[in-house]
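[09:14] KT: can someone run the structure on this one? pasting the chain below
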Amino acid sequence: MGRVHRYIPASDDERQEMLDAIGLATIDDLFASIPEALRLKTRLDLPGPLSETEITAELEARAATNQLPAPALQFLGGGAYRHAVPAVVDHLISRTEFYSSYTPYQPEISQGTLQAMFEYQTLLCQLTELPIANASMYEGGSAVAEAILMAERMSPKDRVVISDLVHPEYHQVTGTHLRNLDIATESFGHRADGTADLEAAQAALAGGASALVIQHPNFFGCLEDVEAAARVARDAGAHLIVAVAEPVALGILKGPGRQGADVVAGEGQSLGVPLSYGGPYLGFLAARQPFLRNMPGRIVGEARDADGRRGYVLTLSTREQHIRREKATSNICTNEGLMALAAAITMAALGKTGLREMAEHSHAKAVYARQAIGGTRRCRLVHAAPCFNEFVVELPMAAEEAVAALAGRGLLAGIPLSRYFAGLERQLLVAVTELNTRVAIDRLAAELARLG
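[09:31] RB: done, structure tokens below
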């Protein structure tokens, strides 16, 4: 049971057969190109092999030494959210047909994978209210960067204008993507109510830009006026890109496409993907029809054969493996297929009604939390604009210190904004979802009231 062959299935005879096939005598011959002085001459200092039962016993013994505290009550957000995931999601994505599949290079034997991607695209189009979507983004930051590059290909201006309330990490990723492409970025500020200053955006766009980028809900949790932003962008001859870090909000908000957005890009983690200490997550990208041939990654389409039978194909695949390099629009399109599948199953299982209910519960609990925390004398609600499930609180002490103190009491109270914005040392970003109980919210409010 514990033989090495359980872990390395090739036998000595099979390895020799493979060496013979490529004209080599020994394994060492495979590494002849490595200079002799750089080769390891001794065996690695590793423990000896163990049987499966011995390994299981060792891991159980180590696990028994863990001193597990009670789960913390958490109010973290900022682009990653704790939502209920239907039990059917994990059951279905654990089927070997899905979790062992990587990429559908051979459509005739990848119909299940292709159909799952097609259904995901369809559901994403319904969520964003835009006609096309791909199935090939890593996570929110790079999806926004790809949206900007797509807008630049459509309307070359070598410049883009971005709200400072787009997720700060999306700003960082975008900067990395654009730094060596001679595409300038200009950030514009926000108003006291916590929303983007569209007059400042209008002034910034006067110099010409391929795109205006806002986030909705924004990083402070406030809802933006997407229709007004669309008018500002359109008047300046720019495309409007809307970043969405919390797509559950679209369960009760109008789709950005219906409000005038040309492109919607963002993070799909809250649609059935666990937090998992930061990944793997799921980027998404949807756009208007004219962007079709400039969209990066893969787009799956439905077709019919000569007998009228339905089938799925890679309608467009813009990687340099598939088309001429100079025409390739993306080289970062590992399809995150398993995460996209989880999102598709979640959206299908919840349906319009279920997603709306999840969004309504999250919003209602956030409203309750705002009232509970804002009702204390020690804390102040910073922004007056409507929010979805996140909001900013000003504390009587440094937010970093408060977070550290409350973590010791079993509370993950939020994200100190000083990590991203200078001068906001006392401000804390708090996120609430349907999984936060009223008891937990009341405790958070009470603990914050005792600070300082």
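[09:33] KT: thanks! The chain has a mean pLDDT of 91.
[09:34] RB: yep, looked fine to me
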